[in-house]
Amino acid sequence: MPADRSTKLLLIVLAAMFVQQAFATIGRTLPPIIAPAILQDFALDPAWLGVYVGAAALAALLFQLGCGSFILRYGAMRMSQVALVLLGLGMAIATVGPVLLLLVSGVIGGGAAAMSTPASSHLLGRYSPPRQAPLVFSIKQTAVPAGLLAAGILGPWLTGLSGWRGTMLVAGVACLVFALMLEPSSMPTACRNGPSASRTSTVRSRASSGRPSCGASPSPASPSTACRRCSPPISWWC
Question: Would you call 39 exposed, middle or buried from its count of C-beta atoms within 10 A (0-12, 13-18, 19+)?
Answer without folding.
Answer: middle
